[in-house]
TrEMBL record:
Homology family: Belongs to the cation transport ATPase (P-type) (TC 3.A.3) family. Type V subfamily.
Protein name as it appears in the record: P-type ATPase A domain-containing protein
Molecular function GO terms recorded: ATP binding; ATP hydrolysis activity; ATPase-coupled monoatomic cation transmembrane transporter activity; metal ion binding; P-type ion transporter activity
Membrane topology, from the record: Multi-pass membrane protein
Subcellular location: Membrane
Residue intervals of the P-type ATPase A domain: 266-404
Species this protein is from: Apatococcus lobatus
Domain of life: Eukaryota
Amino acid sequence: MSKGSQAVASPSLVANIKELDSLSFLLERPEKQRIDRAPFAYLNLFNALYLFKNILFWDWARIKLFVPILLAILACNGLVWLLVHWSIRLRAYMRYTTCSDLHDASHCQVNPAAFSGAKEIVLLQRRQLDEEAELSFLYRKQRYCWNSEAKQFERLKYPVEETFGTYRKSTGLGTESRVLSALERWGPNAFEVPLPSFGILLQEQLLAPFFVFQAFCVGLWSLDDYWMYSAFTLMMLVLFECSVVMQRMRSLKELRSLQAPKQVLQVYRNGKWDRLPGDALVPGDILSIGRPPGVGGEERTVPADCLLLAGTCIVEEAVLTGESTPQWKAPVGAPAEGDEELSEVDPSARLSIPQHKGHILFGGTRVLQHTCDKGSRIRTPDGGCLAVVLRTGFETGQGQLMRTILFSTERVTANSWEAGAFILFLLIFAIAAAGYVLYYALQDPERSRYKLLLNCSMIITSVIPPELPMELSMAVNASLMALMRKRVFCTEPFRIPLAGKVAICCFDKTGTLTSDNLILEGLTGLAGRGQDLVKDVKQASPEVLRVMASCQSLIQVDGDIVGDPLEKASFQATGWSLNGSTCVSPKQGKHKETASVLHRYHFSSALKRMSAIVKVEDESTSMPVLWVVLKGAPEVVRQFLAHPPADYDQSYKRFAAQGARVIALAYKRLPSSTATSELRSMSRDDIESGLDFGGFAVFHCPLKPESEPALRILKESSHQLVMITGDAPLTACHTAAQLHIVDRPVLVLQHRGQEAGVGGGPDPHHQEADGSYEWVSPDESVREPFSSDRSQAVALASQYDLAISGEGLGHLHDIRAEDTFVPMTQVFARVSPDQKEAILRILRGAGWTTLMCGDGTNDVGALKSADVGVALLAPTAVSHPPGTAPAAAPVAGKAPSGAGAAAAQPGGKLPGGKKGQQQQQAQAIIPARGQSAVPNGIASQGKVLANGPAGQQVVKKTGGYGSRMLENLEKQGKPVDERMRRMADWMDSMDTGDDGQVPMVKPGDASMAAPFTAKESSVMPCTDIIKQGRSTLVTTIQMFKILGLICLNSAYILSVMYLQGVKMSDTQATSHGMVSAGLFFVISSAKPLQTLSAERPHTRIFCVYVFASLMGQFVINTAYLIYMYTCAIAMMPAEDAQKPDTDFKANLVNSVCFIIQFFIQLSTFAVNYMGHPHNASLRENRPLFTTILYSTAFICALLFDVPRGLASWFSLVPIPDIIRYKMVGLGISVLVVTYVWEHWLRRAFPEPLPPQKGYLAFVEADKHNRMQKKQQ
């Protein structure tokens, strides 16, 4: 064991856990060896004995000499205790020794990655589990276990990577010993959110470094007889900390209340079914999940992450992912006879949650509808679906979101390196001022050394603004409340300032920029119709209509057809009706066709296709026929066609270039000898080979009305725009041109063997040469060879906008050229979710601050990789009551069928032709997105939904405190003027609806997809986030400047002026502090302008503009103060002069200096307030403008003693008229000069604008490199 003085971090001990950076192992010292206790214990014991001895002998001289020493020791002990409480590193040094051997350690120091939490020292727990010793620690509700083979800590393993064969054979936990073992290993299925008492939380707040420093400053002021000022400051600080504690307690209570209700479930244990509460579940349990039948059935929330073994479920996942469409969950078990879900998973393959999420029920999601499988190996007693528990507690999807919310409040901090460096800069001036006082004061032997030490301490502490953490917290909280009022919820507040620095805005296309409501324009490529667009799809052949009607994953819920918008548009256009998994054609003459889905391969974004096997029965024929129907991306479907038409590419390329979404349709008839039982043994490749081409379905994907205005605003406000989509390059480029993303001719990087914008072609198993790729314009009029050379790439990007497909991006990755081409590209098309994430990482690595906006499903990785990720959670209309909702398409029969099941009415037959299972009907109302999206009744535009007559939803307006006040006045018959209405509007704008505190973000408001969740269907909230981010940046910079100027002035007054006897009375100091606190309060709630400016806010404190402004204003204000001081000294009688160490005495010098200091404070706020182009101007910020106006009037009243006697109440003496006029005249001059200086610097040193095109950054870098070489 090594007993070093510092813990050595070991990154290699962490197994690819992005939240953790490194670990250090520690051994707790015995009490007698703890450095923070042992030395002081011995000293205190010795001093107590010495004091007791002197008391016995009545040696009062030694006792008086000893008491200060004892107090000094106690003070040092308290300081060391505080330092150990604050500093993890110091705590590790004083209370622990470092260990080279993990097995000798008792504790572990966890060093998290950036923005992933604070350092902690946690206990290493040793447990005996199933005759196996486990070494682990718990950090932020997650357990990490030691892997002795890999010599690394890993997250506690859950059974989430077993083979599918293992899951299919699951029989649950067979014995009580296995249940107890699982409970001991994984714990109960509960979200344990501790709720400390008010006293404990307040103690934690009061022991924070800034508060202790603030209390120390208050103590110094009280020692200098400023009792009123000290009491006011201390009361203000304690009240602020109490409000923070109350907010934390309320948030913790709300988080505890958000846990899923304890539902009783059927769980299969010990070979039998038993009813158990949801928190009793452990991984490995077999349970029955579903929604009870009937409209009044209890709403069922999935209690844990489960793998579906038998039956199908329709679930709503909007609370986690933001997906607006209910999700179809298919089982992984072998399909029963007639089951349409043909499992594609190999029994020997292992489960991967990201890849197989279509089989997983995530904790916290709601079951809307289910279909049981009564032929499953284990029959469920309540007709539910069979599932096995994978993860519980905080490891579930809901648990991960709750952990993010629980720990997000700790990320709002003022302890940035810039704040520390800025305080260090101010400290240099303070030390110089204290040294000046010390130098001259020590030359006077009559000066009190106690007063001298007190004064020097006050000078040094004056540079650290006590209000700094409070003011910055208020600024961030104001931004959070402003975003919440716009229905934008943030789980990571530290990202709000990052939004003000965004240079590149990336957008998904489908569902984000374009509407989800696709419009079927018609069909093209039909046999005998060439490239003509047939708008009436019913003119197509029966085979094409069959593909459009049956190759889908639509479901019925309460008579409504829900599912993918493209499939809904395609199905409704055919005129067919849906009954479960059976599609029925409209009757044409005497013929009526019925297509029953036997097996279905769901659409995969990776494969870009979907297929199904259907049994077609016609009234005119007696024998059913089996057909294979397939649809997908044209370039993918082509390889499955037996004979592609010669004009295959030209047929759809024309429409794709116009921004249309084109889907290829194909089919084939299976031999009549094919039995239904044989289908299960056929591979998917065999089923989908040799298809006949049916045609292309052309869909129009209209832009959302807000997309073009929003992106135009971002373009005009100095942001680079990028599109990242899974659509075809031609379609993406056309849409990008409409949205100002591309404004020059476009070149698409493609494989030479493909048509422009088609994608595909390269061999995925071999790296292609550069010559295999080329840049081609959408109309193929321009072709440029591809070269990985950077200079040629920059030259090409200077003439064209670039688009890269997923295959091209893969080639760039192979040749390691993505870092060169990705920052220069405007459109990325046909990219996978992993590629989206890689694009954002590359852009961030290039030094850009990025924003990504998507719908929260396939974009999750990209949203989390961006600096500012915005997930759109669009609300929908409230569902109609059962029986009143109009069907989206004709529905055969009145009783809705279970989604995804073989169609079977009671007593009917299954598609396989055999008597089958009766479906467990789950009557459910699709949860209105407005319900989950609008928590606590909050709706857009200040409205809430209330229950009206007959259970209808009624829109009811609500108002804030100001509106309620006006209503009360009007009811009382009192007049209401315009001024009162403006005041009421201002009060409403300040009203958060939650006692002035920032409401906690709830899982219904936020999603796991991104730190920002917008409850809107458009991208316009991105502009609101950037506006608020810029406003927060501006507010932060101006706060640092104002606090810096105030602190520099205070250091000068407490040093040079203090030596001349200039002081403030207790009343003067209190009034000064009250006005300062009020100004900081109103300045932190500044509102951003409604328009985004092309001018960008300064992002750094350390820049020429900030320091030039700071020093220039300090010199001007100090010169004004010194001049007026000399004028007052010249006119003041000698007998009124005050000595430095005496009590305050009202005289002319003190009176003049107090008023000047008061004026400088007000002018500092007025001059440094940053209004346009990012915030409301000073006159538009009514609270701040009014406060400054009234404060100025108050100064004038003091200066001219109006009303008479007011000045004397503030310890002021009459001021001669000549000095009054000089103070007013020079004050106005100082205000004008500092205003001109400040605004000239803003124009002379603006924040540099980012390049509008990515290649310009490379051009600037090359110029910089050439200049450096010339200088060398």
